[in-house]
Amino acid sequence: MPVAIQAGLWGLLSGSALLIGALIGWFVKLSQRTVAAVMAFGAGVLISALSFELMDEAWDKGGYLPVAGGFLGGAAVYTGCNWLLAAWGARHRKRSARPVRDDDRKQNPENGGALALGALLDGIPESIVIGVSLLRGGGVGLVAVIAVFLSNLPEGLSSAAGMKSEGKTAGFVFALWTGIAISAGLASLFGYVAFDGLDPAWIASVQAIAAGAILAMIVDTMVPEAFEGTHDFAGLIAVAGFLAAFALSKMEG
């Protein structure tokens, strides 16, 4: 199978967590604490992945300037886009607390589109990373795939529950998340095809941009939900996620 197709399929697998989460959120009532615990664990996994799978490798390929510029640039672009989406009603897209969702609905009664764009914004840098990881040879970065999957699952879950309460139909919700999952696969394919053959310094910059965007996303959208639901245990759960990903990355090496 061509490596580009493999990249797309791995991205589709990680993006499918959005649809799986949406199915759970639509048919099963989970406590906010459970969703938040998954979010905290996923945040820890993502932080580990961007530290050891992205930044460390980017440093080896490109040195300080490409990495620092890309890291800050990725965070700045994500923050600007997230600020615009927040004004449109996607500020709390990863949160499962009902009062927060009600506040969002007062700001924008039809915030389903904003939530979808927010999920797309969160997922694009993660998915591109999966495709870029295949450029090294030797297979996909398994830690990156697991990290993205775990971050997508609670987002699909809480957002689908919110859309259900807003009166959206099941067909609309599942078609929406299926489309975003497919977009994740396409972004991974793009990440492989677009950067294949480029100078290592350019690839290092791309990895750093993605890492900066992911870290900004974690702090802006995942950490608030994790702490809101688990309070004093959020840090411990995140550390467990970080340690699990760290151990997996060392086993891969």
Shape verdict = globular
What class do helices, strands and sheet pairing give? mainly alpha
Number of helices: 9
Q: What is the H/E string?
A: HHHHHHHHH
Low-pLDDT stretches are 98-102
Percent strand equals under 5%
Share of helix, binned: over 70%
Secondary structure: number of strands: 0
Distance between the termini: 24 Å
- Specify Rg, calculated over alpha carbons: 17 Å
Give the overall average pLDDT: 82
Query: What can be said about the biggest beta sheet?
Result: none
Account of the protein in words:
The protein is mostly helical. It is built from nine helices and no strands. The longest helix is centred in the N-terminal third of the chain and has 31 residues. The radius of gyration is 17 Å and the shape is globular.
Characteristics of this structure?
single chain; 253 residues; mainly alpha; 9 helices; 0% strand
What's the gist of this structure?
The protein is 85% helix and 0% strand. The chain contains 9 helices and no strands. It has helices at 3-27, 32-62, 64-90, 98-107, 112-133, 142-165, 170-195, 200-230, 234-252.
Helix and strand topology:
Elements: H1 3-27, H2 32-62, H3 64-90, H4 98-107, H5 112-133, H6 142-165, H7 170-195, H8 200-230, H9 234-252
Helix pairs in contact: 1-5, 1-6, 1-7, 2-3, 2-6, 2-8, 2-9, 3-5, 3-8, 5-6, 5-7, 5-8, 6-7, 6-9
